[in-house]
Design goal:
single chain, 6 helices, ThsB__TIR-like_domain, membrane, transmembrane helix, Thoeris protein ThsB TIR-like domain-containing protein
């Protein structure tokens, strides 16, 4: 799921997340995308050439829309994920998970990630809150000190308040790790777990 393809009343791009498996958010669900309009138009032209008249155009247009829906249904819809990590100690984990999101069979895409909560980012909390609200899942990357990282604890609280699913995984192979409070069960980081938890 990505950003809504809808337009606001003043013609700007909507900033809401699209409903899962759809192109639009709940507010703009009645809008027709340009791709849908083109599929209907192309189908109508083909239908009219095969069976001239209004009936051929309507039948062709409906067939074009159905064909587009079928092709779109065969594509994997990726979950939008916000990555929360201990900015001061575990920045490398962000790069690792960004790399895994680029895999061909990845069921998720990274839409945003933790920011440094201290100055000069005075509006850090509002930016993080908005980014988490646009995501379907918050992925907490757990390192040795993550359970007490101020920014991560705030991001988990934001996700809970927004009703966004939280998943936490151990970021490194060796060592003892403490789960982040209120972020659910702690999982080992492996590809099978990522695909299951983030799909």
């Amino acid at each position: 799921m990505g950003r809504c393809n809808g337009k606001t009343k003043v013609g700007r791009q909507c900033l809401n997340s699209a409903t899962s498996g759809k192109e639009f958010c709940a507010v703009h669900k009645g809008q027709i995308s340009s791709a849908e309009a083109m599929a209907f138009g192309a189908g109508a032209l083909i239908g009219n050439s095969l069976m001239p008249g209004i009936g051929g155009m309507v039948f062709g247009g409906m067939a074009g829309s159905l064909a587009r829906g079928f092709m779109k249904g065969n594509r994997m819809v990726k979950k939008s994920v916000f990555v929360s990590f201990d900015f001061d100690n575990d920045r490398a984990l962000k790069e690792f998970i960004l790399g895994q999101a680029k895999k061909e069979d990845s069921p998720f895409q990274i839409t945003d990630y933790s920011l440094k909560e201290a100055a000069p980012e005075k509006d850090w909390e509002s930016k993080a809150n908005a980014a988490i609200g646009r995501s379907e899942i918050v992925l907490v990357m757990v390192g040795p000190k993550t359970y007490k990282a101020h920014g991560v604890l705030k991001e988990v609280a934001m996700a809970r308040k927004a009703g966004v699913k939280i998943v936490q995984i151990i970021g490194y192979k060796n060592g003892e790790y403490t789960a982040v409070p209120d972020a659910g069960r702690l999982y080992a980081w492996n590809w099978d777990n990522l695909k299951k938890l983030l799909s």
